[in-house]
Design goal:
InterPro entries: CAP_dom (IPR014044), CAP_sf (IPR035940). It comes from Leptospira idonii. This is SCP domain-containing protein. Helices cover 33% and strands 24% of the residues. The chain has 350 residues and is of the alpha+beta class. A hairpin with a 2-residue loop joins β13 and β14. It has 9 helices and 15 strands. Strands 6, 8, 9, 10, 13, 14 and 15 form a 7-stranded mixed β-sheet that branches. It folds into 2 domains: 140 residues, 3-Layer(aba) Sandwich (Pathogenesis-related Protein p14a), CATH 3.40.33.10; 131 residues, Immunoglobulin-like, CATH 2.60.40. The longest helix is centred in the first third of the chain and has 27 residues.
């Protein structure tokens, strides 16, 4: 009995001492006790906060519509061998704009609109591309159907020749292209007005200055956070990811010396973070590994890819960007069961 009482008293005294020490530490060094919880508390959202791709039902609807638009071949406009650009069908032009804005809504960018003046200029660039049967950003003056304005456009545009009904899809994908130089201006949140030219088998997407949106902040991310079909990125051995900001005066974002880290179904994957910042974007290439294992996982639960990028500075705070992508097989009747984590800026842990 006495032994038990002594042990009980000893336990009580030990507990009191521990509580006293914890109290002292809490007041002197509160960060030591709160650091783990604090790192899980979101500082800021990834603007815009309500991304359709985070909702599986909405994501399925948008990707289904994108897939339908990928199957329609573009009509043939103009007479490039007579140096006549012609006028694209209005309904086709509206369809291209809608397709662009579907992609932009997934990435996190506001809708863009046509500029009739830019459409007219874009047609001259598309005419040079079609007449010479090759996309050339710097066509010589000896090129067929050459014009100064058309040459200016080709130097400031995304170009394609051939299957122009897939041009927008190809520009968004852009994997293997240096600095993904077609994708970035296409989904850039600051791109609010564009011109599209389509002549023969040539197509041009013309955008000049990336306008700064002074009211709202946006982060265009591709592939987007949320639920994504496997044919966006996962079908490659590696893929270039991009984060493109357009921030207001309050939400100042600096990538500085940030590095990306990626886990695929919980396992770290090799990542190469680019030191370049084209159009203010952060780029990183992810290696996916064994495709056989990925295909098996896709059929069972889906493939989750957890991304963290940091340290970055946002509103003067040191943070890291975190988001999750859940890839799924659109031909599989079983939808992914992987839970979706909340994306955002989280405190950086040194």
């Amino acid at each position: 009995m006495g032994f038990g009482l002594n042990m009980k008293n000893l336990f009580c005294r030990k507990t009191i001492i521990q509580l006293a020490l914890m109290t002292i530490v809490f007041f002197l060094f509160p960060g030591l006790l709160l650091s783990q919880d604090a790192s899980e508390t979101k500082l800021f959202p990834l603007w815009p906060e309500n991304r359709p791709s985070l909702d599986l039902k909405k994501a399925l609807e948008i990707y289904s519509e994108i897939s339908k638009k990928n199957s329609t071949r573009a009509p043939y406009f103009g007479k490039p061998f007579e140096c006549v650009s012609g006028t694209p069908d209005a309904s086709w032009m509206e369809g291209q704009k809608k397709l662009l804005n579907l992609y932009r809504s997934l990435a996190g960018s506001p809708d863009l609109q046509y500029s009739e003046e830019m459409n007219s200029k874009a047609a001259k660039g598309a005419l040079i591309t079609a007449a010479n049967r090759w996309p050339n950003h710097y066509p010589p003056k000896t090129s067929k159907c050459y014009s100064e304005e058309g040459a200016y456009v080709t130097a400031h545009s995304s170009l394609s020749h051939g299957a122009i009904h897939t041009s927008i899809h190809d520009w968004i994908d852009d994997n293997g292209v240096t600095d993904v130089g077609h994708r970035l201006p296409t989904i850039h949140p600051g791109t609010l007005k564009i011109g599209i030219g389509a002549v023969g088998d040539g197509m041009v997407l013309f955008s000049e200055d990336m306008e700064k949106n002074q009211k709202d902040s946006y982060l265009a991310i591709w592939p987007p956070p949320g639920f994504v079909p496997k044919y966006f990125a996962l079908g490659y051995k590696s893929f270039t990811f991009s984060i493109t900001p357009s921030m207001n005066k309050t939400d100042v974002l600096d990538f500085g010396t940030a590095e990306a880290k990626v886990k695929l179904n919980g396992w770290p994957r090799p990542v190469i973070s680019s030191s370049k910042r084209p159009w203010g974007s952060f780029l990183f290439e992810v290696g996916f590994g064994d495709q056989t294992k990925l295909e098996k996982a896709l059929k069972e639960t889906g493939v989750s890819l957890d991304v963290s990028v940091g340290p970055v500075t946002i509103r003067g705070k040191k943070a890291e960007i975190r988001y999750r992508i859940v890839f799924y097989d659109s031909e599989n009747e079983i939808l992914p069961t992987v839970p979706m984590k909340e994306p955002g800026f989280y405190p950086w842990k040194d």
